Amino acid sequence: MKIRILGCSGGIGGRHLRTTSILVDHDILIDAGTGVGDLAIAELAQLDHVFITHSHLDHLACLPFIVDTVGDMRTRPLIVHATEPTIEIMRSHIFNWAVWPDFSEIPSVEKPFLRFSPIRVGEAVEIDGRRIVPLPANHTVPAVGYHLDSGAGSLVFSGDTGPCPELWHYVNQIRNLRYLIIECAFSDREKRLAMASLHLCPSMLLEELAQLQRDAEVFITHLKPGQIELTMQEIEDSIGEFRPGMLQNNQLFEI
Q: What value, to the nearest 5°, has the Cα angle with vertex 30 and ends 170 and 126?
């Protein structure tokens, strides 16, 4: 599996700041934040599956545009994988004919441009030998992370989460884990905001990584614009032994 980071910022504010989206090979997206906008139309048309972590806009802002842009170029619907609560939120608040057309009914219910596929934590989705497993997350709306497994290696993406012991129960069972991408949205100066919004800050991240029992390269995502340098310095000061790197746009992983 070849994994390319399209966006990993907690906000916007320049060409280098794109919100969360990860391209797996040429046909799978993990989340559909603003980073998707840098793909060419031909690349968008090759997407067959989108796995959504949760319903916040920074993780699905481009999903309506993808299906609108390339739906008529494809011979089969784009499959959107998400938990049933997240699907219900998308149906009620985005694909509702008021905010955006319901592309699960366009051009017809029988042959739509988009199809929703419910997922459950711990239940793998197999796509051409690639396993994608939803993992527990603890956020202000129903949310999951994802475990990407090629057989030869694994990558875990936490999605947006606050403290979540259940996540580590799953992660510690992954014998071929190579990479862990985990959020740290706020600096310790805004710990109260991190706790209220169910995100992590460096001191909370330390408590989470203390539960990790596997060797893996750790990368930090979802840093808030304006706090990037401060937060990364606090991470270095508090959890330097994990040698975490800051996730970058267009960073590549292979598992």
A: 65
Residues 6+ apart with CB under 8 A from 108: none
In order of start, what are the domains of the chain with their CATH numbers? 1-119 (3.60.15.10), 124-243 (3.60.15.10)
Burial class (CB in 10 A: 0-12, 13-18, 19+), 76: exposed
Query: Collapsing DSSP states into helix, strand and coil, what is residue 161?
Result: coil
Taking only the tens place, the pLDDT of each residue in 96-108 is 999 999 999 999 9
Write the pLDDT tens digit of every residue in 195-248: 999 999 999 999 999 999 999 999 999 999 999 999 999 999 988 788 899 999
Element (H, E) at 132: strand 130-136
- For the whole prediction, is pTM greater than 0.85? yes
β 21-24/28-30 pair status: antiparallel
CA pair distance 207, 192, nearest whole angstrom: 16
